[in-house]
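FYI - complex with 9Z3, inputs then prediction.
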Amino acid sequence: MLSDIPSETPPENLAALAEDHYFAANPPPKDLANHVALAREFIDYHAAAGRRLVLVTSGGTTVPLEKQTVRFIDNFSAGTRGATSAEYFLEAGYAVVFLHRQFSLLPFSRHYSHATDCFLDFLREGPNGSVVARDEDAARMLHVLRKYRDARDRNMLLLLPFVSISDYLHELRNVAQLMRPLGPQGLLYLAAAVSDFFVPPDRMSEHKIQSTNAVDAFKKNNGSSSRPANEEEETFDNFDSSPTVPRSKSLIIDLDPVPKFLKNLVEGWSPQGMIVSFKLETDPAILVHKARYSLDRYQHHLVIGNLLSTRKWEVVFVSPGNPDRWIRVPFRKNGGGLADTEKEEPVDPKSLPEGEPEVEIESLIIPAVQGLHSKYIQTMETKGQA
Ligand code: 9Z3
């Protein structure tokens, strides 16, 4: 527990101690060594070519409730932001490490994998028992296929999956540290929806949490009966005031805060890379304030603020020394007129048209990030740190 850290610890050592403690207490994912080997080879290859490389994190992190996990708490993200951004980074010439939640959206396949249509709906039978794309989908599919093949053939995309919050943090720390040889050419673009709370391992049940006291009673009665010995041990049943089977228990979950590692990332894991984090809120009144607060606290390079309800339509760039910059896809308001894309405050979600925007907002976000990254590289070169 973090309370084990001595109270006299100087503040500058706290982040390092919290890091050592967290990573010692929470076991790494079983694929970590394999992922590190793949990432090292990929990063060294692109570093030698002098190419820019971005680590894109994507999708939600789970919070397991049991060590042998049956139940977990999840974050809502499907990985749309991350997978779409990865495609535009590839288009901009970046090599991409895509650290994503297992089975969430992937670059390129996202166009077909989680669509409301099954991918089979895009296919038809061709001549001589072959399978081909339907005529109306072929042109678009060919376009996506060519980009996908190009990324794969030129070794520009590395996919690394994670599941839980601790898997994610182990992977992030290792990949960020491997990116050091890239210096300022390295970019970290943290779009994953990261849980703020978790069950620490010392409070986590090994086995599936039981919903009745049958097992307790069974153990107490030395395996002879699952009936509780007395009334007080009985708990709750919706339907039966004197049940002959054990009653259901309610479950109270006590979560600890996940340590904030952005400071460790900025100062230790990847001190020369440009770091972009996302800030997600639901209340428009606090979004910019929270984004600015995060920037001041962690001293990184850019926070992209977005609201759950409007995240596909607008984001706000908050960066040191710059005015807030809203980036918005052009749209016609419900009433007809073209909306003011320069407006310096959140749009009213009620003014947005139904459905998805015609333009993917990531096609505007990535060139803007790329521009800031170019400036960052220049500044670091001038400082002699590149
Ligand atoms: C984001 O804000 C992403 O843009 C979304 C993308 C998760 C909203 P979708 O996958 O959604 O396209 O559906 N990501 C960051 C969320 C986050 O956990 N940020 C932390 C915070 O807000 C800081 S690292 O405290």
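Residues 77-81, 190-191, 193-194, 277-280, 306, 311 surround 9Z3 (CB under 6 Å). The first strand starts at residue 53 and ends at 58.
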